[in-house]
Amino acid sequence: MRYSGFRVIAEALTGHKGWKPVWRDPQPQAEYDYVIIGGGGHGLATAYYLAKEFKQARIAVLEKGYLGGGNVGRNTTIIRSNYLLDGNEPFYEFSLKLWEGLEQDFNYNAMVSQRGIMNLIHTDAQRDAFTRRGNGMILNGADAELLSRDQVRAMYPFLNFDNARFPIKGALTQKRGGTVRHDAVAWGYARGADSRGVDLIQQCEVTGLRIENGRIQGVETTRGFIGAKKVGVAVAGSSSKVMAHAGMRLPIESHVLQAFVSEGLKPLIDGVMTFGAGHFYVSQSDKGGLVFGGDIDGYNSYAQRGNLPVIEDVAEGGMALMPMIGRARLLRTWGGIMDMSMDGSPIIDKTHIEGLYFNGGWCYGGFKATPASGWCFAHLLAKDEPHKTATAYRFDRFMKGLMIDEKGQGATPNLH
Amino acid sequence: MIINHPILGPRDAQEFVYLGDANLINRPDGLTASPQEMHDYVYLRTNPAGEHRELWYHEQGDRSWLVVTRNTVTHEITKVELARDVARQMGRSK
Amino acid sequence: MSQVNRISGGQIDRTQSIRFTFDGQPYAGHPGDTLASALLANGVQLMGRSFKYHRPRGPLSAGSEEPNALVELRSGARQEPNTRATVAELFDGLTANSQNRWPSLRFDALAINDRLNTFFTAGFYYKTFMWPAAFWEKVYEPIIRRAAGLGSMSRLEDPDEYDKGFLHCDLLIIGAGPAGLMAALTAGRAGARVILADEDFRMGGRLNAETYAVGDQAGADWAAAAVAELASLPNVRLMNRTTVVGAFDHGIYSAVERVSDHLPTPLPGKPRQTLWRIYSAHAISAGGATERPVAFENNDRPGIMLAGSLRAFANRWGVAAGDRVAVFTNNDDGLRSAKDLQAKGVDVVAVIDCREGGDLLPGIRHLRGAEVIDSGGRLGLKSISVRQSSGKTEVIRVNALGVSGGWNPNVNITSHHRSRPEWRADIAAFVPGAGGPDNLISAGAAAGILSTHGALATGQAQALVVLERLGRSAKPAALPKAEDAPIAISPLWYVHHGKGRAWIDPQNDVTIKDVKLAHQENFSSVEHLKRYTTLGMATDQGKTGNVIGLAVMAELTGRSIPETGTTIYRPPYTPVAMGTLAGRSRGKEFKPFRLTPSHKWATEQGAVFVEVGNWLRAQWLPREGETHWRQSVDREVLATRKSVGICDVTTLGKIDIQGTDAGAFLDRVYANTFSTLAVGKCRYGLMLREDGMVFDDGTTARMGEHEFVMTTTTANAVTVFRHLEYCRQCLWPDMDVQLISTTEAWAQYSVAGPNARRLLQKIVDQDISDVAFPYMGAGNVTVCGGLRARLFRISFSGELAYEIAVPTRYGDAMIRKLVEAGAEYDAVVYGTETLGVMRIEKGHVAGNELNGQSTALNMGLGKMVSKKKDSIGMAMAQREGMNNPAGYRLVGVKPVDAANALTAGSHFLEIGAAPIVENDGGWLTSMVYSPHLGSHIALGYLRGGDQKIGRRMRAVNFLNKTDIEVEIVSPHFFDPEGERLRG
After folding, report:
1. Which of residues 311-330 of A touch C (CB under 8 A)?
2. What is the third-level CATH fold of B2-89?
């Protein structure tokens, strides 16, 4: 069924009796052409674009829990394409362009809101680096502007300008950046995929990959064997667990990242702001909660929860940046498992096993990538060749010395 | 978290810096290792959900590198050793 | 207004009166009151508005689970939005205002949303506001955002201080009700180190709100006696006003102590709140239980509250929420509320009991098999509609209604490690599940043991379990006698009669209808239900209502409640002020300052300082008459190059490396060779990461056969040291090599310029002529007639230069001595800007080039990587992608027209090339104005740059809209042959 304002009014006047399930709960078929493991944002987007853009059929998404229950349901909802390196920027700009048309495309209001993102500058060296970045963004067709201290102050007079340990000297801003209602992304893709015949199978955990003669045959699951011609893995923090079924070790570690939301507050912060001197970033949701975060906890973890030092560290960053938030209250913290890669950039690639494809290594930046990740993974699955914006995201870049290391930290995942 | 330092006793994990998989101790010789061997050493990780031996550095303490055996699902720590001892057990010397 | 609803009794001090205002209206209360109890005493039920529909609301509860009565407490910079009136202690002069309403609480324009509620169902916004696309940011969202949020911030800096502290104990007891007190008595008497924390200002938990006896005294008196005994035990720490908010790994808990929130302002020297990090060997969750309502149509009106809270207001605070009250219950506990109110002389007009059985209440109209199906009253409850067992409906006039749907054990903290609570059908509630935090056990109501006797018994039993684990023997004391009534509950989640809205999450306005719609649309998993309807996402995290939503979903799907499952609570237990979590790390104290040895002297000179990591370094040192920083920097550069300049370089990392394998060790950690370095000499060293990228650089000197001094960049001082320890301990454990960081042990000054030697010779006791102390020489010397020092003849500026190091305590004396000795040469002291100008003139890489993304080859230092020996990063540096002949190379950049300024971060484009990424040639890494050359100059990474020397290109900066024609030159702008530094 198609959603619209008229529909909402019509349903309201007739007791909301006409709303249909947003997706079916199908039984798994014996075999599919494509099995996507992982019913998070990336997996659902992959299935959606496989069906819609690449006209493929006989597709299933297998989800061990509930749809959208992975990192797409537990992130800080930021979208942007302010990347530094040429291996990344075209991909993220492609993603941002997909965000810009997404709601009309999948007929679901995911509240894509381009209220801008601002990276604060505290040192001359940071300004140099952000100038390099901004120019690179523009060369890649994205938008970027450099703001002066006074311009930042006019936007956010309550930031710490007068008593700061690390003074604010300006900002790099991308006005097309912003936020998206994260759950709605998963639901919109799920609904769009389901309506195109994709089987979304929840409570179905993959327990093995059946491989014969170097070729994938299908997947073993808690709901039995499901045959597949091609299997795409998009399971973020669980990447190493799933790919171990194929005997693969990955250039990935799983780490916990915490995210935070305050009690609902009347509007304070319009866009997204990052405070580089203090590992803190913040935006305000349409409901009024400040949504913020900081560094990863820094150790391998699958626990989906963090520890106290990082909570304090993030709050310290917040107070250093905005001394007025002392009396705002933190409402909830939660943790997600990040698939931290060895250079901080993702992988969308085939594997040495025919028919087995991998999408992962998103670190803590996977949400903004969701549309392009789905599109590019669908492209790879359908055509067996990478999409032009994702050509750098190969496994063999580490063998060849072609790392895409935005932070310049090397093979230490917790530093990316 | 609390790490029970083999010399100093229980210390808050906040005093430590984390590096990662203790297999990093098994560094191949750069002159003789194959590119694949070197690649696997530098870039690939088992990344288990469960028991994990990992390197922690007591930066705000005695500068010991430790090998901590910790469960990545529950965060339970079952063993803490000096990395130097572990390295010697692995056959490393000079 | 007088305290019309104040009744007898309660733990308030009626001898004193406290004045306060709400929405500008003055009221009076007593010490011991909360804002909510005092307002109710004054006949005020209306305290807030709901989030979505702006429905009028009064308190639902008497505690921290409160979803409705949220106010903006205090004013000015101390304004504190979303404060629960039910836990805000009254103090003299308290001011509070209602929030999320305009223009007033009684008349709120956005209450129109309530009229339009049929459109504003769960998730309606996902289905509309999509056309036209541009309208979301321009029209729809601004309207939504303006309406969103609850309370407002002052936008002023929080004037109060916050503190942090650390506590250690054998046993942390969370909650000081009967279970917690009994556990504390048991463990405390046995000598264990106990911390007993309770969120309330008065310990005792439910005993303060009940009329039960414990032993031969009133429950509240027993609690007071227990607290007094505990206070006398030196091994017990009592922490009231302290909420344990989070359970972390290995027995670590966070707790917030509200030190000053009950005072108008904190006492001098006292924080507003303190964040405690509690390290406990064991913990007992004794946090009690939270009552839940039964949902029925219009069950959200002010005056409708939880039955146990109604009775708490009466018993503890001497307040009747109304003068005609009724109780609606599905369990025996609800009957107690009616009895207690009746005993207090309140007119209890009816008890509506959905059960057919149950005690008959003497003197009260007890309607059995009946349900409340609706209520009336716009700004406060005026009547309820009751459907009797006969099917007959009756409207009963009341102005307060207590509702009891049973009690939910507070499993919150036990699920912080994602342990799923388990369903217990006999009490129709979730209890703590397996897999909770280590060594955390539960007692009393928090464990699902809902009687007073049960609380006392399990409190004692669990404390004994802990004592045994601690290896302490203890004999259980005889338990005081207390009520042990069975739980008699007949689960009723919502009243099926009525077509209107029945609230389950009153703050977020989630109703039974929303749950039904979620089910209809197949958002049937509990997580989908929560996210789609926002059930449980309000400031109370659904403490009262979540379970009703689950039960309704279970009913709709035909599954049991355990099959349906539950969402879990996340830290914190109750919301925590950001200031508390930050503590003293704010403003200038956000991070510590590291000051250089010359800081005091430089401050006296009026130096301008700059943050370099945590260091403060002199950026330039203006002299009188200089109004622009460039004047100062140009002067410093020219004077140094002409005669001599002095710079504090202490921030560079210094590592002493000693041992018989020290040379071999350096060969492994540096890409170039150090074992061959002669004693008394320095060498530039290039350090790679294991992935072959450049990690750091610096000079390392051989002070003796087995003794080296390494310098690192300022930025990497800590990480290089960490890395060297890693190499030493983990990779080559038997190498005889010892390391110590001496960055802060030595004050080090660079003395550079043609007169550097003359100046230094006045200070150094030994001969430092070119013969005696040649270029790249290093050695231990003495200064000023015998003070030990280290001297290095190294240059970052391209001049004849030395670095002289003295023990840090002589650093201040040394800068003064150098300046004094340099006076005859017109010596200048220069800062980081001049340092930067001179290093770029000389073509040395620094932070902007050492960006962690560059290879030695990129920097023009490819030949330094020795392939004859194994070193960290050597092997990986050979990979093809890092040896691209057309890859980035370090180049120098000059504007063709010297009048044109350059900006670092500009990108290289060929002349005439379109501004697209395919034509991107690289970027300008660092830029300075060279007074020596009379023009801006820059370094840059240019693709194939070594092949492009002499070529003209453009340096384009779209951000400031400049497009400058530049010439690509050697990065060595100044004295490329290095004659000056060897002079």
Report:
1. 311-312, 314-316, 318-320, 323-330
2. Folate-binding fold (3.30.2270)
For residue A147, list its beta bridge partners: A171
What is the dotted CATH code of the domain comprising A112-177+253-341?
3.30.9.10
Average pLDDT over residues C276-290: 98
User: Is C861's pLDDT higher than 80?
Assistant: yes
Is pLDDT of A337 > 80?
yes
CA distances from C276 to C160, C230, C898 (A): 17, 20, 61
Q: Do A301 and B72 touch (CB under 8 A)?
A: yes
**Average pLDDT, integer, range A128-148:** 98
Instruction: List the domain range (segments joined by +) for residue C205.
Output: 162-289+409-470
Q: What is the pLDDT of residues A3-57, one digit of tens each?
A: 999 999 999 999 999 999 999 999 999 999 999 999 999 999 999 999 999 999 9
Mean pLDDT throughout C885-898?
Answer: 97
**DSSP designation for C90:** P
Indicate the average pLDDT of chain C. 96
Q: How far is it, in rounded angstroms, from Cα A410 to Cα A397? A: 13
Per-residue pLDDT at C1 exceeds 80? no
**What separation in angstroms does the CA of C800 have from each of C641, C754, C836, C910?**
9, 6, 17, 38
Chain C contact for A175 (CB, 8 A cutoff): no
Flag if B45 and A251 touch (Cβ within 8 Å).
yes
- What pLDDT, in 10s, does the model give residues B24-81? 999 999 999 999 999 999 999 999 999 999 999 999 999 999 999 999 999 999 999 9
Chain B residues with CB inside 8 Å of A303's CB?
Answer: 72-75
Residues in chain A with CB shorter than 8 Å from the CB of B47 are 240, 249-250, 252-254, 300
Partners of B70 on chain A (C-beta within 8 Å) are 299
Contact at CB, A311 and C847, closer than 8 angstroms: no
CA distance C163 to chain A (A): 12
Alpha-carbon gap, residue C151 to A263, rounded angstroms: 9
Pick the CATH number of A21-77+182-250+344-415 from 2.40.50.320, 3.10.450.40, 3.50.50.60, 3.40.120.10: 3.50.50.60
- The string of pLDDT tens digits covering residues A230-265 is 999 999 999 999 999 999 999 999 999 999 999 999
Tell if the CB–CB gap between B72 and A303 is shorter than 8 Å: yes
Chain B contact probe: residue of A235, A255, A302, A313 with most B CBs at under 10 A: A302
Mean pLDDT across the stretch C51-62?
A: 97
pTM above 0.95, yes or no: yes
Say if A19 is an interface residue toward chain C (CB within 8 Å).
yes
Task: Indicate yes or no: CB of B72 within 8 angstroms of CB of A302.
Answer: yes
Counted across chains B and C, CB pairs separated by less than 8 A come out at 76
Q: Do A254 and B13 touch (CB under 8 A)?
A: no
Q: Are residues C2 and C102 in the same domain?
A: yes
In chain C, which residues have their Cβ closer than 8 Å to the Cβ of B75? 249-250
CA distance A351 to chain B (A): 15
ipTM over 0.85: yes
A287 interfacial to chain C (CB closer than 8 Å): yes
